[in-house]
Amino acid sequence: MPSLSEETHGKVDHLLPGATMGIVGGGQLGRMMALSARYHGLRIGVLDPTPDCPAAQVADFQITAEYDDRAAIRELARRCDVLTYEFENVDADALDAVRDIVAIPQGTDLLRVTQDRVREKTFINDHGIETAPWRQVDGLDDLRSAIERIGYPSVLKTRCGGYDGHGQKVLRGPEDFTEVERAVGAGDPLPPSILEGFVDFSFEASILVSGNGVDFVTFPIVRNEHRHNILHMTLAPADVDEAVAGRAEKLAVSLAKGFELAGTLAIELFVMPDDGLIVNELAPRPHNSGHYTIEACSIDQFDAHVRGIAGVPLPQPRLLSPAVMVNVLGQHVAPTRALIPDHPEWNVHDYGKADIIRNRKMGHITVLTDDPAAEARRLDDTGCWDDVEEAGHERDL
Ligand code: AMP
What we know:
Elements: E1 20-24, H1 28-39, E2 43-47, E3 61-63, H2 70-79, E4 82-85, H3 92-96, H4 109-114, H5 117-126, E5 134-137, H6 140-150, E6 154-158, E7 168-171, H7 174-185, E8 193-197, E9 203-212, E10 216-218, E11 222-227, E12 230-236, H8 242-259, E13 262-271, E14 277-283, H9 293-296, H10 301-310, E15 323-329, H11 333-339, E16 347-350, E17 361-368, H12 372-381
Parallel strand pairs: 1-2, 1-4, 2-3
Antiparallel strand pairs: 5-8, 6-7, 6-8, 9-10, 9-11, 9-13, 11-12, 12-15, 13-14, 15-17, 16-17
Residues 132, 155, 162-165, 196, 198-199, 204, 226, 229, 268, 280-281 line the site of adenosine monophosphate.
């Protein structure tokens, strides 16, 4: 991999109204990016296999094809002035192959790093930032020696393609190692993985940082509550000391500088009982935990992303009001819709997805409040989010 400093990012000087931004991936993140791009007078093209996907509904054109269809990516590049993406598992080689015909201000090193847990953790540690202790695992022998170093409990995660608990296994003791050993013996090979120490955090948090390749700005650190590994709620800001917030900002800017970041990057964190911060993972794009910024901040994560991609200066985002964001999954659509008339304070976002499916992200609700913890309780008390069933879910952003 070339070092980031050697890479030509293909930054744009300043994208003018009328220029076209192409988005690989047409889900809700692409849709909200496209809506922001509209305010800048940009035209929008989307590549997504689902006809009339959420982003296509607000775009100028859609190329209906798989994300890794190289001819389709070339076609998108040909019709656009600048390309971005809404998720990290985009074929970086396919993007590199079109860099002679379209600007890709985010570059592809950012993708290559965030697609691979070994590269990602190495990058984070190389910037002096703490992660859980980890070891690369390329087979059972590696796993055995990683367990000797890290101990139990620990978490075995696939290097690539895992997200939100998928491709993960908690190893609580030797019996769990034996189970992995047996599966490998039965012909289920261990994919390239990492083993990391189990982190006994106080709570999960995240921070967003945006840049235009040169200047970087941060959003406040927020607290995230998950259910069944899917984000349930974000409370903004997180109830932490100024010193903790300051450290989160510092690490975010340090990573952004390292990437020469253009656009928005999300950093998922564990906040420790002693107020230490451990980085869990990075997402090279706007993030579900940043949706609150649409109503609660002076500039939102999507606008910051678009400005960064377009080479426009970025103002420091200001939190105008504390807020709570709650996700509306498939099973929450009917109960929340029934209560909308009683809740004028709910800012309801619907992603325009045709099929309502359990655990699929269909929309979200943001409430501005002076007391996020009390509002979070009020939302839960409506009973709309009382589902307890566990199930798999689609690619989670
Ligand atoms: P990830 O796919 O890495 O974002 O992990 C999904 C969820 O698993 C996180 O949001 C945490 O709740 C939990 N998790 C991941 N890694 C660890 C760890 N090393 N220790 C404890 N919990 C973890």
